[in-house]
Every structure is written in structure tokens, then in C-alpha cells.
TrEMBL record:
PROSITE patterns: MFS. It comes from Candidatus Thermokryptus mobilis. This is MFS transporter, UMF1 family. GO terms for molecular function: transmembrane transporter activity. It is found in: Endomembrane system. One of its GO terms (cellular component) is endomembrane system. Residues 7-409 form the Major facilitator superfamily (MFS) profile domain. It is a multi-pass membrane protein.
Amino acid sequence: MDRKFKIFIWTLFDFANTSFSVLILTTAYSVYFREIVTGNSQIGDFLWGLAFSISMFIVAFISPFLGAIADHSSNKKFFLFIFTILCITSTGLMFFVGRGDILLGMVLLILANIGFEGGLVFYDAFLPEITTERSYGRVSGYGFAMGYVGSFMSLLVAYPFLKGEFAEWNLFNVKLSFIVAASFFLFFSLPFFIVIKERKIEIDNKISYLKIGIERVKSTFANAKKYSNIGRFLLSYFIYADGINTVIIFASIFARHTLNFSLVEILTFFLTVQSTAILGSVIFGIIADSIGQKKTLSLTLLLWVITAIGAYFCVDKTTFYIIGFIAGAAMGSSQSTSRSLMSKIIPPSKKTEFFGFYSFFGKSSAILGPLVFGTVSSLTGSQRVAVISVALFFIVGLILLQRVREEKFQESV
């Protein structure tokens, strides 16, 4: 099979799954749950955050084990399929969530996000199988760029259902946007499962996958000193991913409450920001293959610092759009470069297991960062001050990154 075609099919999965994150987590379902399902109750934000945190906690806990099990069974595609179907099915069933269906709405969100985030463990681990180490940065960038194209396209498809202020929305149309998210994910993920072939290894079918998963994870922790460079990177990643996750979760809230964006303006804002995210993923992916992932990642973290400081001083919508463009470029490049750097420094024989830890740190950070933002905002009464606290995550992450050695892991024979 032609390598370029295989890479294209791999990136289509990124194109497909972002329909869930942008329509369910960021825009349509989050507002629908708060305004309609909980009846605009004061406890609505807490319930939404609780459901999201539960899902991220579960994914963070199981990711290392899933990675180890998939490595041993040589069956990443099977596990990816199961998690993908879980996300798509749960997302589609959100159509039936109505007023007062709080428990159902929360359970479906938890299951869908577990499917979405859990599947990424196996999807990311295919990167070393579809390209060479020399092109990790470029191909990873292509994947994230396709993801942002997918976000743009799914928002565009769903936009007619979500026009107007929320009070003016037709609730049936809003719920149709959940079907759009599920259908988009299903249709564009199918080529991956049809075309991509996984490298097979000889395995002992009598061995328990769970037992092997636990033993391999224990072995990884027991040999932590041997993998100290990977540990340094994961610590840095944990810190700056905190900042990235916080920006993603609170960007629309900041725009609406601090800068008085309407819901239509928020949707338009996310549509336009995708363009710089696409460019950032591709351009910085090429740069990473030229000057190295570590230097490129350092540059993107500096962009994040500029973004946070700029948001603090922002007083009008036009300036916020400019800041959004910078954030988009930083987001696409930092995520893709992080993935390619991880691919470079991990042992090839334990790639899926270590991507499980990579996922673990990324998912865990989705709980801490928003908590810091919310606490600072509540104590000071200012979201601007909270934005400055986010800048500290990027600064600390950048400092810790400098301790990481960008070199291929040498496995003993």
C-alpha cells in the first residue's frame, strides 16, 4: 500500500473524531445540558463538570493498562474500534435526552467521552507504524491539521441547527446536531478500519490480557529510572497540557461573560480559529522535522504565554479574535509536536503502553487546570486574573521541557 495513502487514511480518523469534541464538549451539548436538561439550574455547571471529571478520571486510570494490553495482544485496531463505537453510540443517544433527564445526560456524556479519549491511546500508537521516525513531526502535524479541518466542517454542517440565541433555538434542531456529530464520526472513521493493517506478533492466547497489562505497567514503574527521560517529558507535558485543556474548556465562557460574545459570535469564533489551528499543525510539523521537536515545542509554548497575557489585556472582540488566531496556531502545533516527540523518545517495543501513560498525564491534567482557573476566578472575581494563572502552566511546562533529551530510546538487545 502506498505510504502517502496510508497516512491520509490515518489522518481521516483525526478528521472524524473532532466532531465529538467540538459539537458535544465545546458548543452544542454543553449548553443544551446546562440550559435545557438541568433547567438552567445553578447546580448545572457543577453537574456538567462532575460528569466530565468522572469520565476523565476513568480514562486516566485505565489508559496505561489499555496500552500495555494492546501492546501484548497486537490488537490496537480492535480496541480502537470498540472505543469508537462506544463514543458514536452514546453521542447519538443524546438525541433522546430531554428536560430533566439529568442522570441519562450525564451517563451518556461519561460513556461518550470514555470512548473518545480511550480510543486516542490506540490511535496515537499507530503513528510509528505508518511512517518513519524522520517524518514523525510532519505526519503528526498532518493528523492534527485534518482534525481541525474536521472541526471546521462539522461546525459548518451543524451551524444551521444552532443559529440564534439559545432562547430562539428549535430544540429538535439542536438535538439533530448531536446526530450530526455521531454520523460525522462514524462515516469518516470507517476508512481507517477498512484500510489500515496492523503489524501482528506471535502471542500466547492462554495468558490473561488483564494480568499482562498489570504486570507490564508494574514493570514500567519498577524501571522508572531507566525511563527517566520519558518521565521528565511527561511531567512537562502534564503541566503545559493543564494550560491547554483549561483554555479549551473556558475559552467560550471567557468570551461570553468577560467580552459579552453572543452564542452566534462564539460559534463563528470557533469556526475562524480552526484556520490558524490547521496552518499551525502543518507548518510547525514541517519545522519540527527541520529543527527538532523540542525546539519547536518550546516555540509553541511561548505562543501560549503570549496568548494568555494577551487575553488578560484584551478589552474588545476584535483583539480577542487576533488572540484566538495565535491560540489556534499554538494549539495545533503544540499537540502535534508533543505526540511526535513522544513517539521519538519511547521504546518501540512498548510504544502503546507508553502512549497509555501519555494519555494518562494528558487526561489527568484536564481535571487540575480547570480547577485552578475556577478557584482563582471565584476568589478574585475576575476571569482576567484567572487567565494569568494559566500562563504559569505554560511557563513552568516550558522550563521543565528544557530538561528533556531529544534522542531515540536505545533498547538493550
